[in-house]
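Handout, tutorial session.
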Amino acid sequence: MANRWAPPYRPLDPAESPAIAAAGALLVVHFWAPWNGSDRKYNPALISVRDHFGTRAVFRSANVDDPACERVRAQCQVVNVPMVAGLLAGRRLGAMVGLRPAVDLATLVGAWVRKTRPVIDPRWRTADAVGVARGIAADQALDRLPLLGDALMDAGCGDDHVLAACRGPAPGWWVVDLVLGGG
């Protein structure tokens, strides 16, 4: 049986989308399909842009064949893959369809980033907060999110949306990703 390819970044969990929107974070979604060979070729550009904007945007992937992604597919008006779309406060900012060079993608995501406010204040990225976030990511240990919330509070975070994501019922991966600077 052939290996099924998937992007090397976290898949979109529809349960976390409302928390990302409420926090005012920019959500950048790469829509892809396992049967589309072009998506694999897009990875270097996407990873480069994600690494550059990782502390200012939440990057996720969405398989267009996954029924759980139907709502976000419709919201982003997906017509073809690969496609990258930006969402802010649950509203579509724009999209780019087809294989594009990293510079084009960076220009588009940069324009979206300029419309947002930083969700994670750089002062909150203390050694303790980053260390807890690294441990959560390495061990896939969402049960440690309250510890991340405590570390962020100790660093001066008073953002209710960020802290609620560390303590609430919805997955708080987006906070982990923004603290670590990637998605």
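The second record follows below. Compare its token runs with those of the first.
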Amino acid sequence: MNSGPPGCSICFVEFRVRVNVKGHSSKVVVLPFWLCATLWCDPTVTSVTIPWLFDCSVSSLQGMAFSLEERLQLGIHGLLPPCFLSQDVQVLRVLRNYELKKDDLDRYVFLMGLQDRNEKLFYRVLTSDIERFMPIVYTPTVGLACQQYGLTFRRPRGLFITIHDRSHISTLLQSWPEKDIRAVVVTDGERILGLGDQGCYGMGIPVGKLALYTACGGMPPQQCLPVMLDVGTDNEELLKDPLYIGLRHKRVRGQAYDELLDEFMKAITNRYGVNCLVQFEDFANINAFPLLSKYRNKYLTFNDDIQGTAAVAVAGLLAALRITKSKMSNHTIVFQGAGEAAMGIAELIIMAMEKEGLPREQCIKKIWMVDSKGLVVKGRDHLTHEKERFAHEHAQMKKLEDVVKELKPTAIIGVAAIAGAFTEEIIKAMSSFNKRPIIFALSNPTSKAECTAEQCYTLTEGQGIFASGSPFDPVTLPDGRKFYPGQGNNAYVFPGVGLGVTACAMRHIPEDIFLVTAEAIAEQVTEKNLAEGRLYPPLNSIREVSIKLAIVEYAYKSKMATLHPEPHDKEAFVRSLICSTDYEEFAVDSYSWPENAMTVQTCKL
């Protein structure tokens, strides 16, 4: 566009803007500054926002999918080849280019570039084969992307809030262009997957998580906000890295840190409302538990590493019970690891056992934990409050192998990010005193898994019931049997939980929600899935899984939903909120009048 009022040259600067008009869906268009200013004064326009002050080419929004009429009206005819493509052909083009990439990090960078250029096409590609693309946009590749974030950084996605922004967080939130935010994923980067302190590079996690909110849960991407709380890093390599994009000092802790979190939570609800979900992600144990305890009954929030991991692990256990033909309360479980994931899983297992009628004290006795110092037992020095709950009367033992042989558990669950912790001796021991041993190697990324799927199936002669946190390839045994390892991916949980709790405007998330979620996931595992070794529904059906988690049904039954009137058909209501990857119509409504109605009146002066 090159027309407009005379004056300052900024009048002719073009911006990509999202225009919200009363009674119509929002659209992203490119307009000159002077027209943006005009729209801001139009009472029928509810908002005009500028998501980014660069990459303003409207032709990149849909590419060659624009019709001729749209190209003419938008002033981009001639800027695109004289070819008109369907979105399906565009997907094919993306897939062909994707296949040319040499490694997973290149594939990650390629897909993130597509997300920047054409968001609808990005999600169309992801949803076309979730099982193929999830390991790239999320674990395990996202872990490598975080480690290389300074090198792969192309453009900012999300909001960066630092310790130096205290008392001004509300102002920073005003900078974010979207006003209707339903879900926030926030991290401080201290415990990224099993990789430790990645500081500001940890922003890759909230970005990846929220991409799955849309791909797996159907939440509109403009309603999602990734946030990095940068309080510094204790990673010396990052502090010395010239490409590091965060604050270059040691982590700030104590009162200043607590005040930052308090202000952040208050600012989020003041800006976006009490029904805005805040998901905590990859906070260190020392902060994760206190923050969850502090905020869970005050805000709509949950910690995915504690509660999301718990739900997906218990879903796998519930599916495994259909193979072992037993109840949860009949099992003895040993955890390799006693951090936030182990505690979350253990608490949800206790809830499942209590539901079967076993008293809580008896439930706790069936759960044992091994940390870096050995078996968690009473009388051991320096136990945290969380660990004390699972400390039993027993002699101290250092090695996991000795613990397994002594306690003879029916299930072992690895969540300590110690690669190879489930040794050949441990796996064979589990097989010796269990007809169908349950072996869950849940640590992420793949390089941190306690054992591989092949090791489990081979060493147990196909009798092991296996699940992992990151994906493993199918395993074929010498006798020809083929197993498809179950991936206990949190993506079965958090997109559906986020969709459900925001759909019915819940104010808090009780622990019951995660047991309801686990049960709903397990119910969707078919007998055929179990025969193949799958403890979870196929990943390509994950959006259906998210829709059928029954959270909205539970919320209204328990009087926790605040959206009224109550929808009669809950599933249809949830489906109505799912965003579409179809392109929007950009051409304005055009039509003609009768010729005599358009006669130009003339007169002589």
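Points raised in discussion: The chain has three domains: 9-83, 88-299, 312-488.
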